[in-house]
C-alpha cells in the first residue's frame, strides 16, 4: 500500500490546470508516490487496514471524509500514456486544493484495482460553494406552520417517524459567500456541507480539471468523463455512507442509506409515505423531485382507478341488458345471417353467431360508461397536472430551488461545450468572455439531427407497416385453419379462439418484440444526435435528449394502437370493390361485427402490461445478477478486507440516463392511460398496481444495487412537464375519436333515437339494421372463396351475404351507395367529437384558471424569506462596519480634533 495525499489552499482554487512550476509539482508527486509518504501531509497517523471497519468512509487518519473515489486498473506493463495522464490529472487536483490518498492494487479484492480517494478540505468547499451559489442556512425558520389537516389521525398508519421524514431542521437560506462565512450558521466546518453537496462540488472540479501539461495547446483534454471514456480510469463515484442492512459503526457517520433501505426501499412499506426530505438530502434534489412526482402520480392514479373500475363493473352489471349481443348469439337471428368472406380465396362464408363471444366481451368496455370515463379522464389529467404544479412549487421553496434555473443557465456550462467550442464572445449578463457555437455550425448540426430523427421515425413506421402486412397475410391462414371449428362452441364462453382474436394477439406480441428490439437502438442514436448538437448546459442537454427519445418512443409504442383505433376497418370498401394495401393483394382488414374496440383493448393490454412486467423484471433482476457475478471473488474475503470503496465499486454505475429512463417509462405509461383509456377503463388500475411496485423497486435499486449517484439539482421535472401537457391535450382528441369512430356507441344511439322501427327506445333489430346486403353472384372471381374453404352448411340456395356497412341493397336505384343513415351517423360522430372536445377543454381551462400554480402561503413564505435575507445581510454589513469604525476610532489620534466635544461612543455614531 502507498498513500498519496495533498493539500493546497489560498485563493487560487479555481485555477484548473497549472502551467507555472508544473514540472516541480509532478516531480514532488512522483517522489512521494514512490516512497509512500504523505504529500505535504507527513504527520497524519496511519491505521492498519485490518483495524478499519468495512463501513469506513474516511482516510486512514480516520478524520478526513472520502468525498469521491477514482479507480483504475494498471494491467498493461509499459502503458506509460495512461499512467502519465493520471499523474498529471491527480497533480492538477492537488494543485486545485483536493487531498488524495491511494490504495495499492495488492489490497483490493481483485488484486489489480487501484483506488484514489479524494477529500475536499474546507477551503475548497467554501470557494466552490461561493462559485456555484450553493444555498446554506443562516437563520432558523421562525415562520409558524399553521397547517391543520382535518381528520389527521386517519393518516397515522401511513406516516413515517418524524426523524426520517424531516431529518434536519428548517432554516432560512442564502447563497454562500466565502467572504461572509461568519454570517452563516457554521457550527462545525467538517459537517456544515452535507455529503451530497460535497460530492457535487468535487465532481464539478473533476469535470473541469485538465490532464495535459499545457491546457492552452489541448483545450479539450480535460474532465473525468474523457478519462473514463479513454480508459485511464475505470470508475468515478461518491461513497455510500454505510451498508444498507446495518448502521455504520462510526459515530460521526450518518447511516442514511440504512434508514432509506428500512423505511423506503422495503416492500413492507408499500403503503407508507416516501421520506422525500431524506431522499433529497442523500441523493440530491434531482432524484428527490423524480420520486416526489412518481409518488404524486401514483396517488392521483387511485382516483382514476376507482372510477375506471366502477365503469367496468357497470359493464358487468348491464351484461344481460345487451340486446345486440343477444341478437348475434340467437340461432334464429345471428345463426341465419350469412356474412361475406373477410379475405379473398382462403376465407369462406360464415355465420354471424360465430362472433358471439367477442360481442359479449366488447360490451364490457363499449357501453355508456365509456363516454363518461373518457370525459372524466380529460378532467382528471388537468387536475393531476395543476395539483402537481402546486406540489412542485412547494418543493421548490422547501428545497431552496426557487432561483435555481437562472444559476443553472448562467454558471454551469457543460465541460463538453467548453472544450468543443473554440470561439469566444462576451456574455451580456456576466460581462465575461465565454465559449459559443457559431450560428452556421448550430444550424448545420440541427438540420442533421432533424434528418436523423425523421429517418428513424420512418424506420419505426416501416416496421409497423410490416406488422400490418403480417396481420393481413396471416388472417387468411388462421381463417382457413379454423374453418372446421364446430359452431356449437361459438355460443359458449370458453377457450374458443376466432381468426380475428388469433391475428390480433399474435400481431400484438410480434409488435411488442419489435418495440423492445428497436428501443435498444434508439437510445444510442438519441445520445449520439444530442452529443453532436453540443448543448450548452446540462439542462439543455437533458431537454434535447428528452424530446428525441420521447418522439422515438411515442411512435414506437403508440403506432400500432393508433392503427387499430383509427384506421383498421375504416377503409375496407365493400364486396366487389374492396380496398387493398398499397395496391398489393392484401385486402384491408375489417372490424368484427362486435366492433374494433375489443381489438384495441387487446392491443393495449398486451403492449402496456408486457412493457410494465418486462420493465420491472429487467430493472430488478439485471443489476442484481451483474452485482452478484461481479462480487463473486470478494465473497471469499474477510469483511475487514472488503472496504467501503471496494463494495461500492462492485455495484452498478448509475449512468446519466438512469433517471431519464425512469421518467420515460412512466410518461409512456401515462400515454397509455390517457390517450386510449376509453377502450380500456381498467388501464389506470393496472398502472396503479405497477407504480406501487415501481416506487419500491426503484428505491431498492438505488439503495442496494447502484453506486451512489452524484448529487444534482433540478427545480422541476424539466421537459417532461411540457410533454405531459401536450399528451393531456391530445388525449381529449384521441378519446373523442375512439368513442365516435372505434366504438359503436354513436351508431347505436342514432338507431335507437331515429331509426327504431317500432318507435320504442330499445335496441331490437339493431344488428339487422347495421348490416348491408350483397348479391353473392356479383362477387368477382378473384374475391370468391375457393370451394374447399366454404363451410359444409353453405349451398347454392344462399344468394345474399351481409357485411358491416350502411349501403343500399341490390336492386335499389342507388345500389351499393351509402344510405342516409350513414350520413346521419357520420354527422352525429362529428357533432359528438366537437361537443365533447369543447366541453372537456372548457372545463380543463376553467379548472386550470381556478387552481393557481403556486399556493398563496408559498408565495408569502418566499417573499418573507427574501425580505429576511436582505434585512439580515444589511444588519450584518452594518455590524461589520461598526466594528471596523470602532477599531479605526480606537487607533485614530486625530479624532478629538475632529469632534473635540464628543465622547468616543458618540464619535463612532457620528462616523456611522
TrEMBL record:
Signal peptide: none
Bilayer-spanning residue ranges: 290-317, 368-388, 453-481, 501-522, 670-693, 830-851
One Pfam family named in its UniProt record: Anoctamin
Biased composition regions of type Polar residues, renumbered to the chain: 28-40
Superkingdom of the source species: Eukaryota
Region (Disordered): 1-40
Gene Ontology molecular function terms on file: chloride channel activity; protein dimerization activity
Membrane topology: Multi-pass membrane protein
The keyword Iron belongs to this UniProt entry's keyword annotation: no
Subcellular location: Cell membrane; Membrane
Alphabetical UniProt keywords: Cell membrane, Glycoprotein, Membrane, Transmembrane, Transmembrane helix
Domain Anoctamin dimerisation: 58-276
Family matches, as InterPro entries: Anoct_dimer, Anoctamin, Anoctamin_TM
Main localisation: membrane
Start and end residues of each Anoctamin transmembrane domain: 279-865
A GO CC annotation given for this chain: plasma membrane
Membership in a protein family: Belongs to the anoctamin family.
PANTHER family in alphabetical order: ANOCTAMIN, ANOCTAMIN-5
Protein name: Anoctamin
Organism: Sphaeramia orbicularis
Amino acid at each position: 500500500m502507498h498513500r498519496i495525499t495533498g493539500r493546497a489552499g489560498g485563493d487560487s482554487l479555481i485555477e484548473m490546470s497549472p502551467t507555472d512550476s508544473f514540472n516541480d509539482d509532478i516531480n514532488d508527486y512522483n517522489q512521494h508516490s514512490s516512497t509512500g509518504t504523505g504529500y505535504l501531509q507527513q504527520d497524519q497517523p496511519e491505521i492498519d487496514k485490518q483495524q478499519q471497519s468495512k463501513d469506513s468512509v474516511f482516510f486512514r487518519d480516520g478524520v478526513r471524509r472520502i468525498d469521491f473515489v477514482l479507480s483504475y486498473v494498471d494491467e498493461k506493463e509499459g502503458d506509460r500514456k495512461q499512467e502519465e495522464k493520471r499523474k498529471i490529472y491527480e497533480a492538477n487536483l492537488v494543485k486545485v486544493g483536493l487531498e488524495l490518498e491511494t490504495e495499492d492494487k495488492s489490497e483490493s479484492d481483485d488484486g489489480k484495482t487501484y483506488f484514489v480517494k479524494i477529500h475536499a478540505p474546507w477551503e475548497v468547499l467554501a470557494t466552490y460553494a461561493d462559485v456555484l451559489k450553493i444555498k446554506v442556512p443562516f437563520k432558523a425558520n421562525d415562520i409558524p406552520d399553521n397547517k391543520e389537516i382535518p381528520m389527521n389521525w386517519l393518516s397515522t398508519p401511513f406516516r413515517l417517524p418524524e426523524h426520517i421524514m424531516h431529518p434536519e431542521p428548517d432554516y432560512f437560506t442564502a447563497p454562500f459567500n466565502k467572504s461572509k462565512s461568519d454570517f452563516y450558521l457554521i457550527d462545525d466546518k467538517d459537517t456544515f456541507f452535507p455529503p451530497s453537496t460535497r460530492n457535487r462540488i468535487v465532481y464539478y472540479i473533476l469535470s473541469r480539471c485538465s490532464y495535459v501539461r499545457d491546457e492552452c495547446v489541448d483545450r479539450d483534454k480535460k474532465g473525468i468523463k474523457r478519462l473514463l471514456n479513454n480508459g485511464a480510469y475505470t470508475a468515478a463515484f461518491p461513497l455510500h455512507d454505510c451498508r444498507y442492512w446495518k448502521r455504520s459503526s462510526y459515530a460521526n457517520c450518518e447511516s442514511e442509506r440504512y434508514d432509506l433501505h428500512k423505511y423506503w426501499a422495503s416492500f413492507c412499506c408499500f403503503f407508507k409515505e416516501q421520506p422525500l426530505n431524506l431522499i433529497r438530502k442523500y441523493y440530491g434534489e434531482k432524484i428527490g423531485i423524480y420520486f416526489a412526482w412518481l409518488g404524486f402520480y401514483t396517488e392521483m392514479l387511485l382516483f382514476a382507478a376507482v372510477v375506471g373500475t366502477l365503469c367496468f363493473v357497470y359493464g358487468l352489471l348491464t351484461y344481460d341488458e345487451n340486446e345486440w349481443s343477444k341478437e348475434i348469439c340467437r340461432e334464429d337471428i345471428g345463426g341465419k345471417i350469412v356474412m361475406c368472406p373477410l379475405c379473398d380465396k382462403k376465407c369462406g362464408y360464415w355465420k354471424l353467431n360465430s362472433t358471439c363471444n367477442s360481442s359479449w366481451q366488447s360490451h364490457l368496455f363499449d357501453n355508456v360508461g365509456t363516454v363518461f370515463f373518457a370525459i372524466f379522464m380529460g378532467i382528471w389529467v388537468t387536475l393531476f397536472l395543476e395539483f402537481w404544479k402546486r406540489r412542485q412549487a412547494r418543493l421548490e421553496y422547501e428545497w431552496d430551488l426557487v432561483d435555481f434555473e437562472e444559476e443553472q443557465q448562467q454558471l454551469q456550462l457543460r465541460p463538453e461545450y467548453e472544450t468543443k467550442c473554440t470561439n469566444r464572445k462576451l456574455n451580456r449578463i456576466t460581462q465575461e468572455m465565454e465559449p459559443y457555437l457559431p450560428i452556421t455550425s448550430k444550424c448545420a448540426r440541427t438540420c442533421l439531427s432533424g434528418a436523423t430523427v425523421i429517418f428513424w421515425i420512418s424506420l419505426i413506421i416501416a416496421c409497423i407497416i410490416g406488422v400490418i402486412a403480417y396481420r393481413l397475410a396471416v388472417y387468411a391462414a388462421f381463417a382457413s385453419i379454423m374453418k372446421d371449428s364446430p359452431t356449437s362452441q361459438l355460443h359458449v364462453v370458453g377457450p374458443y379462439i376466432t381468426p380475428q382474436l388469433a391475428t390480433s394477439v399474435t400481431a400484438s406480441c410480434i409488435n411488442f418484440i419489435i418495440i423492445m428490439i428497436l428501443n435498444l437502438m434508439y437510445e444510442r442514436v438519441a445520445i449520439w444526435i444530442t452529443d453532436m448538437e453540443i448543448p450548452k448546459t446540462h439542462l439543455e442537454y437533458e431537454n434535447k435528449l428528452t424530446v428525441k427519445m420521447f418522439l422515438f418512443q411515442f411512435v414506437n409504442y403508440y403506432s400500432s394502437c393508433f392503427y387499430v383505433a383509427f384506421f383498421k376497418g375504416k377503409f375496407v370498401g365493400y364486396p366487389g370493390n374492396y380496398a387493398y394495401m398499397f395496391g398489393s393483394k392484401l385486402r384491408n382488414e375489417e372490424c368484427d361485427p362486435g366492433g374494433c374496440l375489443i381489438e384495441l383493448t387487446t392491443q393495449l393490454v398486451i403492449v402496456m402490461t408486457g412493457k410494465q412486467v418486462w420493465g420491472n423484471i429487467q430493472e430488478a433482476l439485471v443489476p442484481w445478477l451483474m452485482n452478484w457475478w461481479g462480487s463473486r471473488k470478494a465473497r471469499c474475503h474477510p469483511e475487514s478486507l472488503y472496504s467501503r470503496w471496494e463494495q461500492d465499486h462492485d455495484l452498478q454505475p448509475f449512468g446519466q440516463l438512469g433517471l431519464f429512463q425512469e421518467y420515460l417509462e412512466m410518461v409512456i405509461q401515462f400515454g397509455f392511460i390517457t390517450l386510449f383509456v376509453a377502450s380500456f377503463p381498467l388501464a389506470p388500475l393496472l398502472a396503479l398496481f405497477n407504480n406501487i411496485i415501481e416506487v419500491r423497486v426503484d428505491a431498492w435499486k438505488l439503495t442496494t444495487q447502484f453506486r451512489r449517484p452524484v448529487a444534482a439539482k433540478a427545480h422541476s421535472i424539466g421537459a417532461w412537464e411540457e410533454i405531459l401537457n401536450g399528451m393531456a391535450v391530445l388525449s381529449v382528441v384521441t378519446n373523442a375519436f375512439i368513442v365516435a369512430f372505434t366504438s359503436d356507441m354513436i351508431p347505436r344511439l342514432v338507431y335507437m333515437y331515429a331509426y327504431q322501427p317500432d318507435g320504442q327506445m330499445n335496441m331490437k333489430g339493431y344488428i339487422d339494421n347495421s348490416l348491408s346486403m350483397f348479391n353473392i353472384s356479383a362477387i368477382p372471381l378473384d374475391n370468391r372463396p375457393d370451394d374447399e374453404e366454404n363451410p359444409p352448411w353453405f349451398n347454392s340456395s344462399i344468394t345474399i351475404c351481409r357485411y358491416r356497412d350502411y349501403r343500399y341493397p341490390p336492386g335499389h336505384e342507388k345500389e351499393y351507395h351509402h344510405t342516409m343513415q350513414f350520413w346521419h351517423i357520420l354527422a352525429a360522430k362529428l357533432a359528438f367529437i366537437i361537443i365533447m372536445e369543447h366541453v372537456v377543454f372548457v372545463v380543463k381551462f376553467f379548472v386550470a384558471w381556478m387552481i393557481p400554480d403556486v399556493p398563496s402561503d408559498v408565495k408569502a413564505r418566499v417573499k418573507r424569506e427574501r425580505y429576511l435575507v436582505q434585512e439580515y445581510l444589511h444588519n450584518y454589513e452594518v455590524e461589520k462596519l461598526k466594528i471596523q469604525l470602532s477599531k479605526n476610532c480606537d487607533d485614530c489620534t486625530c479624532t478629538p480634533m475632529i469632534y473635540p466635544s464628543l465622547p468616543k461612543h458618540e464619535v463612532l455614531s457620528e462616523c456611522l
